[in-house]
Amino acid sequence: MAAAKGTKELVSLLEKFGTCEIADALVKLKNRSGGHLPGIFAHAPRPDKAGPSTGICGPAFTVEMVSQADVDAPKPDKHFVDATEGHEGCVMVISAPPETRSAIWGGLMTLRAQALGVKGVVLDGRCRDLEEQWDSGFSIFARSHSTLGQSPFTRPSRFQVPLSIADPTAPSFPSTTIAPDDLVRADVDGVVVCPRADVLAVVEAATKAREVDERCKEDLLQGKGVKETFAKWRGK
């Protein structure tokens, strides 16, 4: 069981695979969304520097943002970035109300997160200060960016609670739930979330799929057709 292995070991196993491989494995394991966070892509480092160094993998540290007009939602006594102290190596996952057009992450947040050993941030929302972010080398995955700051539009409410992230433009697509310490893998293709309990099964499935793909590549390079190659190695 995955619980028998520590977080660092699980991360080291999963980070060997790209987001596409992990998503395919999750689909095979009957995960309806494949762990996919639709519409969230790399915004930093600088686009022309995007590559393997952009990729991150780590346990989720979740933050729920709410509208600043929401007076009933809990109010934390810590800044949401400061709250990651003691969670070195985590990937922050921050959700905001879908109608939010202001940023929920800026350049100063990146400086503090880097000092605390945060690997990167995944935003179900927007970032800003792009040039600062590009120069920082910090990995940021977001829906978009904005000129507006967080205040007076949103505020943090709860930390380390399950988040449900959906595509606001495609309500029929299954949402993905991220629990604290689920593993987040992000790269140039996008972001996937692997439930902690499924990591070992995902690694096993992804390993087998990679071996099959390598055989397919060999045949395609030899001039064989896609249909016959897939029938031979994928059984379809």
Automatic annotation (TrEMBL):
Molecular function, one GO term: metal ion binding
Organism: Acaromyces ingoldii
InterPro entries in alphabetical order: RraA/RraA-like, RraA/RraA-like_sf
Keywords, ordered alphabetically: Magnesium, Metal-binding
CDD domains with a match to the protein in the record: RraA_family
Residues the entry annotates as binding substrate: G106, G107, L108, M109, R128
Keyword Transmembrane listed: no
Binding residue positions for Mg(2+): D129
Known cofactor(s): Mg(2+)
Record-given protein name: RraA-like protein
